[in-house]
């Protein structure tokens, strides 16, 4: 996004866990700050060296260690690119439990370290539920072997959860064992238009009730997003060119019986149209059409960057209030910026994007802290899936109580007493 500029004199590319251990041991002894890096696709500055920290990139650790074909358990190194893993497990008859627009660049270690959410969350849940084991190198170089492939292990504290989503501030993830769901043969994608946000909410409830076990994605976009995608993404086509509605919804279903699933989806869409929830819609007839639908949804973030400066906010908000902040922000900013709202409606996750020609202090002052205060008033989260990083480290109090933040600081001090791991990220300086 051009928002953060990192500065470092040293990049290290370890090829093994032992090398990561030696690096951290050396740096910890000399109190040299370290920034772990994956694919550098994060949106909150979590992998940016702020004051000449040593960069430790896991890109050289990209081996698949094993795959259990009976249980679908993948064990690999942290530097594996998500798309490469996806291709590998699909060839074995499975899929990755997470799918992101950045899958061609992001690393699985970074995904785990940021607890990445993505497009399959509604069906398969978070990485907290899909990661079975981790190998982590602690700040002092100690290798913590939690690389189990057991589905059940009820022996004491489940320590791996400390590192999932800790953004490299407690340890460096080096290996992962991950549960992958079976790849089901039937996949259908529908692109729909709705006249208002209330219809989108009712459609979500109807989809949960009527599609049930086959519902695998429920994404929404306002018409500003569609206009943006059509202007700035190459090779995409508007699935509903005649539609002039305010909102669009992408629904994906996945199941084991092609005929049953398609009939179920078609019946649901017909009923929803009769009930006035859908103004128009189309079901993808082939892989190319389905890819085009997904390209529009996944490409919104990429398209927004092409306009100019973009202020990105990743919020968890109760679904009934989720679009209110978009409309409020349009009123606040007027003609000074374009405001887009899209995201994972099935998960209550809004991506609020505000685009202007250049980064401007006056525009930022109109947005922050209002967007955080508003979200906090709804008991929402200021980071649904992107993490806190550098951007939101000082904003954690909007979503967590002082007692919770203080406990996090105590954990940080216990595991990283010299504060060498990814400093200035995740937690506010005042508590460290």
Automatic annotation (TrEMBL):
Keyword GTP-binding attached: no
PROSITE patterns the UniProt entry points to: FAD_PCMH
Cofactor(s) listed in the protein's UniProt record: FAD
A Pfam family matched in the record: FAD_binding_4
GO MF term set: (R)-2-hydroxyglutarate dehydrogenase activity
Broad enzyme group: oxidoreductase
Keyword Membrane: no
SUPFAM superfamilies: FAD-binding/transporter-associated domain-like, FAD-linked oxidases, C-terminal domain
UniProt keyword terms in alphabetical order: FAD, Flavoprotein, Oxidoreductase
Domain FAD-binding PCMH-type as annotated: residue spans: 4-183
EC number: 1.1.99.39
Protein family per UniProt: Belongs to the FAD-binding oxidoreductase/transferase type 4 family.
Name by which UniProt lists this protein: D-2-hydroxyglutarate dehydrogenase
Organism expressing this protein natively: Urochloa decumbens
């Amino acid at each position: 996004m051009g928002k953060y500029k990192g500065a470092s004199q040293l990049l290290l590319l370890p090829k093994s866990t032992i090398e990561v251990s030696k690096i951290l041991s050396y740096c910890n002894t000399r109190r040299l700050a370290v920034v772990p890096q994956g694919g550098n696709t994060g949106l909150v500055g979590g992998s940016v060296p702020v004051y000449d920290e040593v960069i430790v990139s896991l890109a050289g650790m990209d081996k698949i260690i094993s795959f259990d074909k009976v249980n679908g358990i993948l064990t690999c190194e942290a530097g594996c690119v998500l798309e490469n893993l996806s291709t590998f497990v699909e060839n074995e008859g499975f899929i990755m439990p997470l799918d992101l627009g950045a899958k061609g660049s992001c690393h699985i270690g970074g995904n785990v370290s940021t607890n990445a959410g993505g497009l399959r969350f509604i069906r398969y849940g978070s990485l907290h539920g899909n990661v079975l084991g981790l190998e982590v190198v602690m700040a002092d170089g100690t290798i913590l072997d939690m690389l189990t492939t057991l589905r059940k292990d009820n022996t004491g504290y489940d320590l791996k959860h400390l590192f999932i989503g800790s953004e490299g501030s407690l340890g460096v993830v080096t290996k992962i064992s991950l549960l992958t769901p079976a790849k089901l043969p039937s996949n259908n994608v529908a692109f729909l238009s709705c006249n208002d946000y209330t219809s989108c909410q009712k459609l979500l409830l109807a989809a949960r009730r009527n599609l049930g076990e086959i519902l695998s994605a429920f994404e929404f976009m306002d018409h500003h997003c569609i206009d943006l995608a059509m202007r700035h993404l190459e090779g995409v086509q508007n699935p509903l060119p005649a539609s002039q509605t305010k909102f669009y919804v992408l629904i994906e279903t996945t199941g084991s019986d092609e005929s049953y699933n398609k009939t179920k989806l078609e019946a649901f869409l017909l009923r929803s149209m009769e009930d006035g929830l859908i103004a128009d819609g189309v079901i993808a007839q082939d892989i190319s059409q389905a890819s085009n639908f997904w390209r529009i949804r996944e490409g919104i973030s990429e398209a927004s960057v092409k306009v100019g400066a973009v202020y990105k906010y990743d919020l968890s908000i109760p679904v009934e209030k989720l679009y209110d902040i978009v409309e409020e922000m349009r009123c606040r900013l007027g003609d000074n910026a374009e405001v887009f709202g899209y995201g994972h409606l099935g998960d209550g996750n809004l991506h609020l994007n505000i685009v202007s020609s250049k980064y401007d202090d006056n525009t930022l002052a109109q947005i922050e802290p209002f967007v955080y205060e508003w979200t906090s008033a709804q008991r929402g989260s200021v980071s649904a899936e992107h993490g806190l990083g550098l951007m939101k480290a000082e904003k954690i109090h909007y979503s967590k109580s002082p007692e919770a933040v203080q406990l996090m600081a105590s954990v940080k001090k216990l595991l990283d007493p010299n504060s060498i791991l990814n400093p200035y990220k995740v937690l506010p300086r005042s508590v460290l």
